[in-house]
Amino acid sequence: xxxxxxxxxxxxxxxxxxxxxxxxxxxxxxxxxxxxxxxxxxxxxxxxxxxxxxxxxxxxxxxxxxxxxxxxxxxxxxxxxxxxxxxxxxxxxxxxxxxxxxxxxxxxxxxxxxxxxxxxxxxxxxxxxxxxxxxxxxxx
Length: 140
What we know:
34% helix; Aminopeptidase; alpha+beta; seven-stranded mixed beta sheet; 140 residues; globular
C-alpha cells in the first residue's frame, strides 16, 4: 500500500534513507551520510513524500520537490519486488515530466531508471562528494 508521509513516519523513513545511502554509495564515505542526517531529517517533512507499507511497516519511500525526485529508497530486504517501480509510477500519475540526479557509479539505480523510461540528459560534478552524477529525465 502507498500513502502520503505523515510526521510519525520520520524515524522509519530516516533509517531507510541512511542505511540504503550507505549501501548503495560505497564510493562515498559513511561519514558523509551521517553528517547530513540531521539536515535531511529537518528537510524531509517539507517535501512531497509517499511511503510504501507492508504489514504496517514502511519498507520504502519516494521524496519529491515539485517535479524533481529527491530519491527513491527501498529497504534492502524488500528490493527487487516492484516497490521502487510502484513508488515511481505513483508520482508519474500526476506529472508530465520528472527529473532526478544519480551518481554515475550507482549502476543499479541508473539501470532502474532507464528501465522506467528515464534518459540521461546531463552530466556534472557533485561538489559535495566530488563524484560525477547524471541528470535523468522522464517525459510522459
